[in-house]
Design brief:
With 582 residues, the chain is α/β, with parallel strands linked by helices. It has four domains: 159 residues, no CATH class; 130 residues, Rossmann fold (3-Layer(aba) Sandwich); 66 residues; 188 residues, P-loop containing nucleotide triphosphate hydrolases (Rossmann fold), CATH 3.40.50.300. The chain has 26 helices and 16 strands. A six-stranded mixed β-sheet has the order 3-5-6-8-4-10. Strands 11-13-14-15-12-16 form a six-stranded mixed β-sheet, sandwiched between helices. Strands 1-2 form a two-stranded antiparallel ribbon. α14 links the parallel β5 and β6. α1 crosses α7 and α5 crosses α6. The longest helix is centred in the middle third of the chain and has 20 residues. The termini are far apart.
Length: 582
C-alpha cells in the first residue's frame, strides 16, 4: 500500500495489487471520509493500469498471461481453478487486508458506515464488476474460489455484506513464502530416506508415470504395508518422482487445502487401516484433481467415483535384494549375506535395525568397548522389538531363554531343535519341493505347543525366539478381541500385517479361546464367532511369519485349523530326571 500511495501516477502496472487499488479508485470518488490526496493517487493508479483505451478487466487479463514473478502463484491458481477476474482480484485484496494495516484502513473508509476492515462481497462486486454486479455477487458467493476454499466467507448477514478472507497458509504460499497447512506434516527425513530396493524403486517410477499421465482427475495410489515407515518412504519416493513432495494429512478438515497443495507442489498422503471386507471412499479434497496417496494394510478396499485406484503391495524383498539392502546399510557383505539368509526383514525394518545397531555401537565406543558392527549388535537391537508397531496389541517378552533354562526330555529337545531349523530355512525350504506344492508354498511356520499347565510351553516359545534372534510378542487377547462386530478381525489384521513386515515371533497363549471349534448356529453370537474363526483360518493360511500357539488340549481347535500346523509339539509332564534338573 505504501509503495502506491507515496507519489505520482503509475504509468505501468507494478503487480496485481496495482490493479486491486485501481478497482477501488471508482468507489473512492464518493467516499467523503477519505483524504483527498489519497483519492487522487488512487485515480492516478487507475489511469496507469488501464493503458490507452483498454479497460481495467482487459488490462488485468493481459497481465495475468505474463505476470510478474511475485504474481506467478496467483496467476497459476487462477488458471488451475478457472477463477473469474473478480475472484482473482478479490483473492489479492483479501491477502492485502490481512497483512497491510493501511489497506485495512482504506477498506474501513470505503465500507463506511459498516465497520469492516476485510473486503465484503458487495464492495468487491461494485469495484471490479460494476457493469454486472449481480453476476459478480453470485461468482464471489458460490464461485470456484469459494468452492475450492481459496476464499472463505465470514459473517452471518446478507451475502453482499459478508466478508471474505484467504486462509493463512494459502495467503503465505501465494506470496511465495513457506507455509504448512494445519493438520499436515512432511514425511520425516529419516523415513523418506529408507532404501526400498531396486524392484520397489522401479515400481515406484512406473507408478509415478501413471499418476502424472491422466485425463481429468489423477489416479489414487494405495500403498499397502504393515510397516508404516516403509509405506511412508514409498509415498515419498513416488511423490519425488512426480516432482512433488508428500505431506501426511492428519485432519479431516480438507476444505481449502486444494490451492495450498497446488501452490506448494504437494501430494496429500492419508492413512486408513481397513478391516477385512470393509469398503471406504477415498478422501475428497474439494477442488483438487491431482494425485492422492493412501497408506493402508493388506485388507479392505477403497472406492472412488471419478478416480482410478491403483494398488501397490510392499512385500518382504527377496533374499538377494535383502543382502543388497543390508550391505548398503552396514557395509559388510559377509554379515549382510548371513542376515539376509536367516531373517526375512522388510526394507523398512532393515534400515531401522541398522540405524539402531550403529547407535548401540557408538555408545559402546564411548564406554571404551568399540569395534566393528557385528551380528551380535544386530541381534541385540532386533530382540528389543523397537519400532515394530505391535505394542498396542501384543506384549513384548524381552527375557533371554538360554539352553540351560529349557529343561525338557531329549526327544522334545530334538523336536524343538528341528523347529528352529525349520524356521531358519523356511524361505529355502520350497526349493526341495515339487512344483505343485511350490506354487502355493508360503514361507511361514505355524506351531502348536500342547500340554498341561506348567510343562514349559511359554518358556519354549521364549527359547525359540532367543535362538532365532527375533523379538517375542505375546498377543494380548483382551486388546485384540472386541464386542463390536468386525473390530476383532480388524485388530488381528493389523497385528498380523505388522508382524509379517517386522519378523517377530507371535505367541498366542491359551489360543483355543480365539481359535476354537466352529459350532452350530443357535443364536447371532454363534454366527459371528464362526465368522471370526473363518477369517483366522484364511488369514493364518496366508501369514508369512512365525507363530506359536499354546493350549492344554489339541482337541479344542477346529479340525481345519489343526491341519494347517507345520509342527505340533506335545509337552509331557516332567519325569524324575527333569524334575531334579528343574
Amino acid at each position: 500500500m505504501l509503495n502506491f500511495l507515496k507519489g505520482a501516477a503509475v504509468e505501468e502496472p507494478v503487480d496485481a495489487f496495482a490493479f486491486v487499488l485501481a478497482g477501488l479508485a471508482r468507489l473512492a470518488k464518493s467516499c467523503d471520509t477519505l483524504d483527498e490526496a489519497i483519492r487522487e493517487q488512487l485515480q492516478a493508479i487507475a489511469a496507469g493500469c488501464a493503458i490507452g483505451r483498454t479497460s481495467l478487466p482487459v488490462a488485468f487479463r493481459q497481465y495475468l498471461r505474463r505476470p510478474g514473478p511475485s504474481d506467478a502463484p496467483l496467476a497459476k491458481v487462477a488458471c488451475e481453478f478457472d477463477l473469474e477476474l473478480v475472484e482473482t482480484l478479490a483473492v489479492r485484496l483479501a491477502i492485502a487486508a490481512e497483512q497491510d494495516l493501511l489497506t485495512g484502513h482504506l477498506l474501513a473508509h470505503l465500507h463506511h458506515p459498516l465497520a469492516c476492515t476485510r473486503p465484503t462481497i458487495g464492495l468487491l462486486a461494485q469495484a471490479y464488476s460494476p457493469e454486472d454486479v449481480h453476476h459478480a455477487v453470485h461468482a464471489l458467493g458460490q464461485g470456484n474460489a469459494v468452492r475450492c476454499g481459496m476464499l472463505e466467507l465470514c459473517g452471518d448477514g446478507p451475502l453482499p455484506e459478508q466478508q471474505v478472507r484467504v486462509p493463512l497458509a494459502t495467503a503465505m504460499v501465494l506470496q511465495d513464502l513457506e507455509s504448512s497447512w494445519p493438520g499436515t506434516s512432511p514425511v520425516p527425513q529419516d523415513q523418506a530416506a529408507i532404501p526400498l530396493g531396486k524392484i520397489a524403486d522401479a515400481r515406484a517410477a512406473a507408478l509415478a508415470r501413471r499418476l502424472q499421465v491422466c485425463n481429468g482427475a489423477c489416479p489414487v495410489l494405495v500403498v499397502r504395508s504393515g510397516d508404516t515407515p516403509e509405506a511412508r518412504a514409498a509415498a515419498a519416493r513416488v511423490a519425488a518422482l512426480c516432482n512433488a513432495k508428500a505431506v501426511l494429512v492428519h485432519t479431516d478438515q480438507l476444505m481449502g487445502m486444494s490451492p495450498w497443495l497446488v501452490l506448494s507442489g504437494a501430494i496429500p498422503v492419508f492413512s486408513q487401516w481397513l478391516a477385512p471386507g470393509e469398503r471406504k471412499s477415498v478422501p475428497v479434497v474439494p477442488g483438487y484433481s491431482g494425485p492422492i496417496i493412501l497408506l493402508s494394510g493388506p485388507e479392505g478396499d477403497f472406492e472412488s467415483d471419478g478416480r482410478t485406484i491403483i494398488d501397490w503391495r510392499l512385500g518382504v524383498p527377496a533374499m538377494s535384494e535383502r543382502s543388497d539392502l543390508w550391505t548398503a546399510a552396514i557395509g559388510d557383505r559377509a554379515l549382510a549375506n548371513r542376515l539376509a539368509a536367516e531373517h526375512r526383514h522388510s526394507a523398512g525394518r532393515i534400515a531401522a535395525l541398522a540405524s539402531k545397531a550403529r547407535e548401540q555401537l557408538a555408545l559402546c565406543e564411548e564406554d571404551g568397548n568399540g569395534g566393528t558392527l557385528s551380528y551380535a549388535h544386530i541381534r541385540t537391537v532386533s530382540r528389543r522389538g523397537d519400532a515394530s508397531g505391535l505394542g498396542a496389541l501384543a506384549e513384548l517378552v524381552p527375557n533371554e531363554v538360554g539352553d540351560e533354562a529349557l529343561v525338557v526330555t531329549a526327544a522334545l529337545r530334538q523336536e524343538l531343535e528341528s523347529l528352529v531349523t525349520r524356521c531358519r530355512m523356511r524361505e529355502q525350504f520350497a526349493q526341495s519341493l515339487g512344483p505343485s506344492i511350490r506354487a502355493r508354498y508360503r514361507p511361514s511356520v505355524r506351531a502348536l505347543f500342547v500340554g498341561p499347565s506348567g510343562t514349559g510351553k511359554t518358556l519354549a516359545a521364549g527359547w525359540l525366539a532367543s535362538r532365532l534372534g527375533i523379538p517375542l510378542f505375546r498377543v494380548d487377547l483382551s486388546a485384540v478381541t472386541s464386542k463390536y462386530i468386525g473390530e476383532t478381525e480388524k485388530n488381528l489384521s493389523q497385528l498380523l500385517a505388522r508382524a509379517e513386515q517386522n519378523e517377530v515371533l507371535l505367541l498366542f497363549d491359551e489360543a483355543d479361546s480365539l481359535f476354537g471349534k466352529r459350532t452350530d448356529i443357535h443364536e447371532a453370537n454363534d454366527r459371528f464367532a464362526n465368522a471370526q474363526t473363518n477369517y483366522l483360518l484364511q488369514r493364518m493360511e496366508s501369514y508369512d511369519g512365525i507363530v506359536v500357539l499354546t493350549s492344554n488340549g489339541r482337541s479344542r481347535f477346529d479340525d481345519a485349523f489343526s491341519r494347517r500346523f507345520d509342527a505340533i509339539v506335545v509337552f509331557p509332564l516332567p519325569g524324575p530326571e527333569e524334575r531334579r534338573d528343574l
